[in-house]
Every structure is written in C-alpha cells, then in structure tokens.
Design brief:
- It is a single chain.
- The chain has about 400 residues and is mainly beta.
- It has one domain: monomeric porin ompg (Porin, Beta Barrel), CATH 2.40.160.
- Helix content is about 5%, strand content about 60%.
- It has a 16-stranded antiparallel beta barrel. A two-stranded antiparallel sheet has the order 4-5.
- A hairpin with a 3-residue loop joins β18 and β19.
- The two termini are about 40 Å apart.
Length: about 400
C-alpha cells in the first residue's frame, strides 16, 4: 500500500529528519518565543534492499524483486510572532518508486513466497504542518494543524498540546490531544477489484512528565493512547481484511545523562506498545553524543525493536477463509536492529547535519520464537544531510 509505506517511513525517519527538536533538559528554562528566525532543510535518501529471487513467487514471470526508493525533502521555518508567540512550519515533499508485496503463497515446505506487483509504483507525497505556540511565565500552549496528500490519499489533522512547569521549573507536566481524518481512493488496475473510496479517523491523547534529577540527568516518561476507526485494511493486497477499529497504548521513557569528564551525553529510550490486535512491541534505543570540540559533535546510535504478530495474521494468504486475515509483513512477528552515525557541525547561527542508518530485520531477531519468517521483511539504508540557519 503506497500510503502506508509513506507514513511508515515518516515514523522511521522522524529522528533523522527533525529540524531541530528541543532537548528534554530545555524544559527547565523560562518559556519564551525564539529571539531569531530559523530556517532548515533536510534531504534524505531511503533505499530498501532488493528481494532475493528465491523469496518471490513470480520473479521469472514479471514479479519485481525491487523494493522502494524514496527521496525526501523537508523544509522548516521557526519564527517569533510578537512578544509571546512563535510559528513553526514544516513542509515535506517525497517522491517514491518501487514494487510492493501484494500477498503471499505457501512454498509447500512450511514457508511462504511473496507475490509482488509486476510494475514499479510511482507516487508523490506532500505534507504541511503548522504549529503556533503561546508562551506563559510557567509553560506554553500550542495549536497544531496539518494537511497531507498523495496520489491516492488525503489527510487532515489538528491538535492541542501544552506544558506546565512546577517545582521551581525542575518538573514539567505535558499533555495533548490530536485528531486526523483520512480518505483513501485506491488507484484502480485492470483485473483488480478494489474499494473506490474509504475513510478512517484517528484520535490520540497523551500525558507525560519530565523531571530534572540533578545537574547531569533528566528523566521523561509519557503515556499515549490512540483509537482508529474506519477502513484499516490495505486495498492493494490480494487478500486483506482487518478489523474496522484499533486501540493502542504506548509508554515512552527517555533518560539523558551528561558525563562531564568526557564532555559527552548518553541518551537512553524505551517504548512499550500494545493494542487490541494482540500486538506487543518493545523498542530500546541508545545514543552517545560526543563533543569533539566546541563546534563538532559525533553521535553513534543503536536501536533494537521486536514485535509479536497480530491475532489475524497469516503467513500465507488463504482463499475462502471467513473473518479477518492479513499476510502483511508489518503485522508479522519479527525483530530488527538499527545502527546509526551522525555528525553535527555548528557555530553561532548555522548548523550542518550528516547522518546514516542501516536497518536489518529478521525472525531470528525477535524476542520470541518465530516459526515462519515473513519473506518481505525489510533491510534498508537511510542517508540524510541538512542545515539550519538563524538570523
């Protein structure tokens, strides 16, 4: 599904594309709008490894082994607006090409083979988000609005969020709500029977707290709840029938510790996710922020991810089966590791960022036992370059 790929990539690359995000430790400072206007740009190139021909059912009769290649341009402007306001606008432009898994069939030996689309998919995505923030003596409040469009997808989103500082600004309470309304109009293909237009909505709410422990460390934790209702299936699959609602809860914890003797900082993150599709996932991430000199920082990183399968997931598509079923690899059990390296060079009013990530997934990387590894699991490389300039 083209739209799902695009939105999944946005989630995967959020850390690399952020321009820039304030550190948790900044919550201890008095809230005030920025004193300068900041403009930023990021370019990312995302490339999935090609599939092995032995994993593709129809590789010798037109089924492509090529995966997705996505180019992302992101622009950002953060500017003060009067004495107590700021406006933060981001615009993403993505171009995507590649073949997509349409389903799976049994290989007759307990495994599965991919059924791939025969032609490369071409798509373009544009996404605009604007955040307006009002600053107070002991906190801030923001209104967020956004619009995203693709060849077959359109989405609107709105949100409110805020922060409140207490305990001499050593403790920050935070929370917010959001809502999105999405419409899909699948691209039709000769011989395919697809829905013509479907909708879904998603409501989210989160609450969290950040605590300055001492001069060297900060801890933040939050709970996120999301509920989606409507068309949640993938119209580009041969067989894909999912429940028409999904409720999920995610617990996120972040810890930051500064090592003065090394002039470095350790970032440790953990995320626990569960939903009513019977999926549970764990994400653990580490970053080492090493200052080389006052104008250069190098950041090696490592992330581990593991998830269980959805309760209606099937390794192979089954014709005539009643009820929900999907052979989508994103609903299968697997684990993954990501290795990254970034460098940030900066001076008074500019910053240059270069980063690279390598992602590897597999059934043997999962926390539990995976009897049948999905042949469509991803391996990809993500490269990013960008700059920020303040004036």
């Amino acid at each position: 599904m083209k739209t799902e790929k695009s939105r999944t990539l946005s989630a995967l690359t959020s850390a690399a594309l952020a321009i820039p995000v304030a550190a948790v430790s900044n919550h201890v400072a008095a809230d005030a709008p920025p004193t300068m206007t900041e403009v930023g740009y990021r370019y990312s190139q995302y490339q999935e490894d090609d599939l092995s021909e032995s994993d593709v059912f129809n590789s010798d009769s037109g089924g492509s082994t090529q995966r997705y290649d996505i180019n992302i341009h992101q622009f950002r402007v953060l500017a003060p607006a009067g004495d107590n306001y700021s406006v933060d606008a981001t615009f993403d432009y993505e171009t995507m090409s590649g073949a997509s898994p349409m389903g799976t069939v049994s290989d007759g030996d307990g495994g599965a083979l991919l059924v791939m689309s025969g032609a490369s998919i071409e798509d373009t995505r544009m996404d605009l988000n604007v955040k307006t923030t009002r600053y107070y003596e002991s906190g801030n409040a923001s209104v967020i609005g956004g619009y995203s469009t693709e060849d077959d997808y359109e989405a609107f989103n709105v949100g409110l969020e805020g922060e409140k500082h207490i305990n001499d600004k050593l403790t920050t309470l935070m929370g917010g709500v959001g809502y999105s309304d999405d419409t899909i109009e699948p691209t039709q293909k000769l011989g395919a029977i697809r829905v013509t237009e479907e909708d879904k909505y998603t409501a989210t709410i989160f609450a969290g707290i950040a605590q300055v422990i001492n001069a060297e460390s900060v801890l933040q934790t939050s709970i996120n709840y999301a509920y989606s209702d409507g068309y949640l299936s993938d119209p580009y699959k041969l067989i894909d029938q999912r429940p028409d609602s999904r409720a999920s809860i995610a617990w996120n914890t972040r810890y930051r510790y500064y090592l003065g003797s090394l002039d470095a900082a350790v970032h440790a993150d953990y995320r626990l996710y569960t939903d009513d599709w019977d999926m549970v996932s764990h994400t653990i991430g580490f970053e080492w922020h090493q200052n080389i000199d006052p104008n250069l920082r190098v950041i090696p990183s490592f992330r581990y991810y593991s998830q269980s399968q959805a309760d209606f997931y099937k390794p192979s598509d089954m014709q005539g089966l009643e009820g929900d079923q999907s052979s989508d690899y994103r609903l299968s059990p697997f684990g993954a590791v990501t290795f990254g390296l970034s460098a940030v060079a900066h001076s008074y009013n500019w910053k240059v960022i270069v980063s690279a990530e390598r992602y590897i997934s597999g059934g043997d990387l999962a926390l539990g036992t995976v009897e049948t590894e999905h042949p469509g699991l991803l391996q990809y490389t993500l490269l990013t370059v960008g700059f920020d300039y303040s004036f």
